[in-house]
Amino acid sequence: MSGGVDSAVSAFLLKKKGFDVIGVHMINWDTQEEGTSQCSRSKDESDAKDICNRLNIPFHTVNFVKEYWNDVFLRFLENYKRGRTTVPDIDCNQSIKFDAFHKIAQDKFDADFIATGHYATTNYGDFQQNRNSSEKIRLLAGRDPLKDQTFFLCTVTQKQLNRAMFPLGSLEKSEVKRIAEEQGFHRVAQKPEVFLYIHSKQIIWF
Questions:
Q1: Which of 91, 109, 119, 125 has the greatest number of C-beta atoms within 10 Å?
Q2: Which of helix, strand or coil describes residue 63?
């Protein structure tokens, strides 16, 4: 649960389908160590908690600051020094969200699957409703061509995909925002998206 519209609607759709849903907010960046304000992070966490309360599902936080720094950000900086511009989200998805996080979800919360707000799907379906043990799982583009996020999932393994769900795969962004508004998630429906910008030695999130 990022505190944004995509994860909010994903959780709502999962609950509507009858799944036992647990909301988990990942903390990947230490703003205190960086010396910047914690307002943004605290706001995201507060929004995520509010969404879970509205959906009447449990809310938890997990800290991956160390793992993100070592497995994602340092790798990104090393590549950047060599003139290679890589995408941190790709490494984060493979090594943290669909690996380290899934292990915690399994061990701590006894979860069978993790679900994310990515605009993507698989041949098993958005909710794994077409699961077939005789057929290999394949990552597929979601319905919205302007929001397709399969690129960010390109290194996620078949084993990792087998235990993942993408509830937004059959929806367009406009539909997701409409559902959020209908469910009373008015503020998160209007939140701006976040991008990473690098200027000299500064890392700016906006």
A1: 119
A2: strand
